[in-house]
Amino acid sequence: MHKGELDSDIQYLPGVGPRRAAALKKEYAVETVGDLLRVYPFRYVDRSRITPISQLNDSASQQILAKVVKSELIGGKRLSVTVEDSSGRMELVFFKGIKYTMARLEPGKTFLFYGKPAVFNGVMNMVHPDIDYPPGADDRQASYTTGVMTGIYPSGEGLKSAGITAKAMNKLMENAIRLALPEVRETLPEYLMQEAGLVPIHFALRNIHFPQDAASLSAARRRICFEELFFLQLSLLKQKYIRSRGARGYVMNRVGDAFNRCYEALPYSLTGAQKRVIREIREDMRSGRQMNRLLQGDVGSGKTMVAVLSSLIAVGNAYQACLMAPTEVLARQHFANMEKYLAPTGVKVAVLTGSTRQAQRREILAGLADGSISIVVGTHALIEDKVVFCRLGLAIVDEQHRFGVDQRAALWSKTADGIPPHVLVMTATPIPRTLAMTLYGDLDISVIDELPPGRKPVQTLMMTESRRAALNRFLKEQIALGRQVFIVYPLIFESEKLDLKNLEEGYDRTCDDFPLPDYKVAIVHGKQTNEEKEFNMSAFAQGRADILVSTTVIEVGVDVPNASVMVIESAERFGLSQLHQLRGRVGRGSDKSYCVLVRGDKLSRESSKRLELLCSTEDGFLLAEEDMKMRGPGDMEGTQQSGLPVELRLASLVKDGPLLNEARRLAESVLERDPDLGLPENALLREELRKDRYKMKDYSKIS
Ligand code: ADP
Ligand code: MG
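YS: structure for the whole thing
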């Protein structure tokens, strides 16, 4: 088949080439010309308005339509161009691209100039305005970008250094539209477009990139957002439907001795919420259908115990269970907890991670294969091909946002008879219920909405660098009382050198401020080997170190009840949910606990709002809701890789709430009438859902 423009490699689009193609791939994951069309502007500059020179002011960027009067090179470094329209004259100033600009701006010719006017020595000027040909000046040169709203695309350093400026991006998009738009196929059937009042895809794509006017833009937006939300809903609902038709699951109708013995030996009684959730899980596990359940519970709500007891139900029915954690540290901690809780039961549990030694690994693999090991805790190592279970009946994934969808799916293939194991996904990222329904539309949801009794509130304070000495005094007091301290640095992207430098400087300074032999400081970060991490972590967990300086690797799950202070450096760089998670690391023991947010001197309004909110409440769901309002769910910690089967590029689950509901309603009615999408009028839908991006989600089929 002839490969059209739409599917051709982005590097062959005029104006791209290998270097820019690499940048586009990196920044936008754009591989083909068709992919580029689906990168949308995040805002627009209104270029439809032309301001007379005499009415310019220096408040915002504006556009003039003016004739070049003369150009003058001043001091060899500065190009001064005088332009005029019928209302007056002004100066344009250029410091770069002087030769090119001088040649282009021939006296007598008229152009559109767009830029921010400034008053200099009493004269209005514009420095480096954008230059465009006026509409209709010359058909070969006049572009879509002329005289209409211009899209501004998210841009990163990578794009800039490959020469893809805002303007270049518009130009590329123009080429993509010209060459490939005719090949874009409609994705929605006519009847749906009519029912929802949507414009066709060609109109939508053209106008999302180059809006003719505000009304066309809003019609384009609505169409594209609807499409995203609709297919999201349709794919989720379809899976749920397939599942309800019966992905068979193992029947586990006994509770078993191990469960009862563990339960009776518990050092505390379960909270009402824990009991309810365990009941829900028991119901699922004996229903004969595969469990696919999401367990949500704020940090410290006691999810581990639910995991333990669920595993014991599997064991009590002669199945195996596995618990997969996102980090080595966390896996080992879960293992330690499991061993403790399982002691009265005699159930055999093992831990398998990347650093498990060969001899031991062989032993564990053999034990899993012959069934002598009932429960295994581990990291990604668990999903390797070499791991074979005798009778895997339950797979638990902790803090699932660290796992990709495909990694979860790999667990499904661990049973021999093709029946998928029951699956319990646990997350501490609180997600508002309405959002959860969409994010995890294919899962059933349980919520632990109650903390174990006796939790002391964590006092949260905010301070700037100027109070560092006071902070150090306070930390020393705490340490003198026998407590321990976390100091966390942002290391959002582990590869970023600057972040690592901050962390290292922070560690050095901490060591200076808290010198040996009185104080011991441990450090953990993602660049360390597993042994280093393990060594430092356990030094802290076992109380041999007073302070743990780290990156967010401790964010998930680590339990050190004796730690009473969480210091978060450059707190403004963390998201709300992440800050809340970090804060959840303290306040687990009986001591009064503190969370100290060290912030920069200059903060955006939004950042300070975030930090103030955190100081004012400990309610994770409330924070999640606020976080979502402020940043949109796409940015929410975790949601990116977690639930969404389809990436939303334009639509927002929060801001487009009404459209989301409409999309869901229509998706439901389509499936009600045509569950397999077999009717001719739904052929387009069937075809769209067949695309790769909707594929991995059909868990029940992966076996
Ligand atoms: P998370 O939900 O964050 O994983 P954990 O399972 O780590 O929470 O539990 C946090 C702490 O609370 C642990 O120290 C655990 O022993 C304790 N805990 C769990 N359930 C209860 C309960 N019902 N009563 C008292 N303490 C509990
Ligand atoms: Mg946990």
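YS: worth flagging: The CA atoms of residues 153 and 169 lie 8 Å apart.
IM: good catch. Also The chain is about 40% helix and 20% strand.
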